Amino acid sequence: MSSAKLNGPFTDLILQKMREMGVDSLEEFSRRTGISRGTLYYLVRGRQTKAGTWVKPSVDTLVALAKALDVPAHELLYRLEPEAPGSEWRSERHIPILGYVGGGPSQLEEIEERTVPVRVKGDARHLAAFKVRGNSMCAGKRPICDGDIVIVNTEDKGHPGAIVVARLENGEYVVKLLKNGALYSTNPEENGPPVIPLDQVAEIVGRVVEVRSRL
Asked: Is pTM beyond 0.70 here?
């Protein structure tokens, strides 16, 4: 399918889950989740009324999708109806994209996007975003690939097994897996060192709390 046509309200969530599962087709995702292929196609393509509102899936479809994506069903509902009762505790904020993060050399070109929207309770001053350059983390259960955007909680410095963004002593920013007192790549055959000792790290910027996959 052309990426220009992937305009559904759940497209980013579905594609990210497919990547986590190692699935590269909606047909296979349909088989594994039990959601019909036709339903999945309209969920990722998006269907809107003449008034510009989403054609809403059934409750059964929302519940099945929530189970497949491992997200609360009400989060899916709020994507369809941002003003639904109960959504008022979360409002949209735009957080800054601070720059590139990745496994290769520092990228100096300017990023076209300056901010990215998030829905949070209260303010979002503890959140920041980075655009990923390189595929050194494009493997494992939670692949993070070139072109993705990672949302980082700067108040959470991570724990063993967490994915974090770190600033190295040479000024570069990397996104890596924190474990065994070092930073690891999940796809070490790609550019960048497979292991970075913590003595080369100037700062753990924060833990990655969300990955926005490129379409």
From this structure: no
Taking a C-beta distance cutoff of 8 angstroms, is the pair 131, 149 a contact? yes
The secondary structure of residue 59, as a DSSP letter, is H
Query: What sign does the CA torsion over 155, 212, 20, 107 have?
Result: negative
Whose tokens are 């070109």? That residue is 109
Tell me which residue has tokens 């699935």.
Answer: 23
Instruction: Report the candidate in 23, 35, 97, 86 with the shortest Cα–Cα distance to residue 62.
Output: 35
* CA–CA gap between residue 56 and residue 61 (Å, rounded): 10
Smallest Cα–Cα separation from 177: which of 161, 201, 188? 161
Q: List the one residue out of 199, 187, 180, 97 whose CA is nearest residue 146.
A: 187
pLDDT tens, 89-127?
456 677 888 888 874 444 445 556 678 888 776 667 889
Cβ(186)–Cβ(139) under 8 Å? yes
Are 194 and 183 in contact by the 8 Å Cβ rule? The answer is no
Whole-number Å distance between alpha carbons of 20 and 152: 19
Closest to 114 in 3D by CA, of 101, 131, 127: 131
